[in-house]
Amino acid sequence: MATSSKYPDPIGGGSFIIAYRAKEKTVLVVGGGAVAAGRVFNSLDSDMNVIVLSPKLNDELLYRYEKNQIVWIKDIFNEKHLDNVDMVLSTIDDPIESQRIVELCRERKIPVNAADINDLCDFWFMSIHRDGPLQIAVATNSKAPRLANRVRRHIASSLPVGVGTAIEKIGQLRYKIKSGDPGAENVGKRMTWMKQLCDYWPIEELSKINPDDINTLFESYIEQVDPKNVNISINRYFEKSLPEAEKKKDDDKLPLPESDKSKPFEDQETISIDKVSDDISNLSLNPSNDETSKISSNNSDQAYMTDVNCQSRKSSNIHKKGQMYLVGAGLGEPDLLTVRAYNLLQKADLVLADKLIPEAVLSLVTNAEIFIARKFPGVADMAQQELFTRGLEALNNGKLVVRLKQGDPFVYGRGGEEILFFESHGYKCEVIPGLSSAISGPGFNRIPLTHRGVADQVLIMSGNNRFGQLPDVPPYLTSRTLVFLMAVKKLDLIIEML
Q: Residue 393 in contact with residue 260, Cβ under 8 Å?
């Protein structure tokens, strides 16, 4: 028997929202005022044939009539005006006449909308943001149209620059691929390849694709080259972002910024990401050692501060020109952040954020520059180096830097590597833990990780190792709870292993 967890129950009470192809459909707009003008504009924007029925028109509608954008019937409503129309929009201030129009439309099965009379409407208008082919519509089921406008503005302000152009370019590439490799048998191949491209390339760079890039991408599709390995605009993207000195270095090296070369530190050489990974064994997380950790309590907030003991540097070399914080953003809900994390987001000069940090959390940053990590498959190490460079430059200029990571920085967050890096350059890093989904996910679903007499152990594992392979899952133990993170794509295989 199917379970409700697999097949969710419908909530009901919503509108059936679709993108309706209205091109060359005929719409009758009854009325000639400001509301009618808005309805006319939306109809013309959808390539509809517009007839305006009204004894007189306002200035905007008169302009559109003179430009031959609309047909004007200088009359009051009569049933004969419903002949050969596909949709009716009543915008008059007479509710009784509007109701008569609606009833006549219903008899003819013509969809109708009557402005400000919700009960008479077959459909409602939504608050729309448009950027080329991109249309975003916000509906409140006619309950709060003014609030819908506010929500729409909020969504539009958070969109990446160039998203409409990016969609246009992707459409051109999609058409070329579909034309060059037609056939129903190739649908899956086309969809999979395009999904990879749309998921992994930055929107800003998709908007910069030129005709030559489209040809190169098409050839890559034909040869079935993974989109994330097609180095066209993606290289321009990262080369532009990194300092000139960075471009001349090996991909796995991070040079010390020019402003730091005069400082009396021991390790002026470049730092390898692989070396940082190897040095994880040098981490010392002993809460009892005052040199490596301490508890800080300040009235309304508490934070567990972890000072990583990097063996390659003596504590006397730690300087305090800038301040570095590694902060866990938890589950992405602002009210689930620690108070300490919230306060730091308010005070920061620079926030280096993971690309999946929700907008609701980023909106808490008041004065700081926000830099989003550009970690995409195939270029993750380069993006990590870019974060290191940005962070070091800000620290060397005396800034307060927050490295904002999802969940908890030390639960599959590479937090240890980042601490090692910054401390190897002389900056002590304070860690602000975040709520990890490994613990809270089961909790929100009322699943205790430990339960007396049932489970006395918890094992947290990743669904992928660093090479994208399945983890080494231990034999099943009835008294142990297994928690897998980042495992959705390989869930079936993991279940088989267990």
A: no
Domain 323-437 CATH class label: alpha beta
Name the pTM for this structure.
Answer: 0.51
Backbone angles phi, psi at 100, to 5 degrees: -65, -40
Lowest mean pLDDT among 16-25, 86-95, 173-182, 261-270: 261-270
Report CA torsion sign: 197, 199, 201, 205.
positive
| pLDDT top residue among 383 and 408 | 408
Q: Taking a C-beta distance cutoff of 8 angstroms, is the pair 43, 51 a contact?
A: no
Strands of 219-318, DSSP E: 253-254, 271-272, 293-298, 301-306
- Give the Cα separation of 421 and 415 in Å (integer): 10
Report the catalytic residues. 116
Calculate the alpha carbon distances from 184 to 3, 187, 319, 389 in Å.
Answer: 34, 5, 64, 48
Domain boundaries, the chain: 26-125, 128-158, 163-234, 323-437, 448-496
Rounded Cα distance, 222 and 231, in Å? 16
pLDDT of residue 232: 63
Within a 10 A sphere around the Cβ of 312, how many other Cβ atoms?
Answer: 14
Question: In the CATH scheme, what architecture does the domain 163-234 have?
Answer: Orthogonal Bundle (1.10)
pLDDT digits (tens, 9 = 90+) for 70-104: 999 999 999 999 999 999 999 999 999 999 999 99
Would you say 487 and 465 are in contact if contact means Cβ atoms under 8 Å apart? no
How many Å separate Cα 436 from the centre of its chain? Answer: 20
What angle do helix axes 380-396 and 233-241 make, rounded to 10 degrees?
20
Q: How far apart are CA 265 and CA 267, in angstroms?
A: 6
CATH number of 26-125: 3.40.50.720
Query: Cα separation of 310 and 318, whole Å?
Result: 11
Name the 3-class secondary structure at 275.
helix
